[in-house]
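Customer escalation, tier 2.

The customer says the design service returned an amino acid string that "doesn't look like it belongs to this structure." They asked us to rerun it and document both sides in this ticket. The original structure tokens are below, unchanged.
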């Protein structure tokens, strides 16, 4: 069963790695899939395409500047006999030589997708390819950990992503929406828990906030609309806040 979009590969891969103990999130600093496991600091990175091609190979090599654990994932379509991307032994050998892992995902009409690891990302030292750059790895890890959940779908193109910055801006907007009055950056910071609230208000990257007077801000109609558009994210924030408050109450009692 052929897939129509790269995004159809994401869910099977996410479940596959979650079963191995990874926390998985999508579209983190341009990587289709990123995973972290508690027992290791090295990030897992997976780049996906419907078929194996040069663009995917180059993406994989670029991601080696972020991690040694880089996989390429493609669909395994049993109906495409004779196609170049069905020469799995040769493709596997190429990936192994470049220190890249290779995964295939086979979709069925009635069964759940089958994920198969053809080779693991080993031997990059002997290949002499790119090495992880510490500053880039740190930025990737920070972006991953500052996201409260996995609100995107790996392989998405042309869609607005829920980044850590957007989540913070949504928390700021939510506090302002609840208040319904003009607020100062300090008030918003203290009530939202977003330490960079003042910068978010001043830069106003999304056009959600309006500086009414010195040190006083209001929410724009675009900001109110964003709270509706990203209701899944804001609902998650409220749930976490309620859980944290309940935990604090239990400790006090």
């Amino acid at each position: 069963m052929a897939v129509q979009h790269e995004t159809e590969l994401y869910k099977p891969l996410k479940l596959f790695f979650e079963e191995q103990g990874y926390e998985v999130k999508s579209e983190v600093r341009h990587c289709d899939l990123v995973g972290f496991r508690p027992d290791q600091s090295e990030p897992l990175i997976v780049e996906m395409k419907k078929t194996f091609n040069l663009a995917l190979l180059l993406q994989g090599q670029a991601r080696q500047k972020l991690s040694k654990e880089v996989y390429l994932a493609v669909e395994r379509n049993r109906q495409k006999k004779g196609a170049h991307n069905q020469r799995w032994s040769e493709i596997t050998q190429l990936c192994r030589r470049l220190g890249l892992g290779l995964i295939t995902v086979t979709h069925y009409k009635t069964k759940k997708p089958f994920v198969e690891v053809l080779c693991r990302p080993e031997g990059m030292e002997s290949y002499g390819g790119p090495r992880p750059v510490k500053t880039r790895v740190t930025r990737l890890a920070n972006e991953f950990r500052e996201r409260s959940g996995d609100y995107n779908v790996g392989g998405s193109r042309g869609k607005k992503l829920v980044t850590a910055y957007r989540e913070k801006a949504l928390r700021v907007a939510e506090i302002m929406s609840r208040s319904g009055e003009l607020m100062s950056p300090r008030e918003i910071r203290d009530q939202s828990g977003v330490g960079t609230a003042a910068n978010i208000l001043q830069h106003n990257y999304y056009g959600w906030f309006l500086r009414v007077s010195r040190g006083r801000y209001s929410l724009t109609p675009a900001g109110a609309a964003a709270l509706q558009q990203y209701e899944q994210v804001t609902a998650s924030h409220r749930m976490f806040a309620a859980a944290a408050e309940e935990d604090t109450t239990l400790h006090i009692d």
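Tier 2 assessment: The sequence is consistent with the input. The domain at 164-252 is CATH 1.10.10 (Arc Repressor Mutant, subunit A). The mean pLDDT is 89. Sent an explanation to the customer and offered a walkthrough call.
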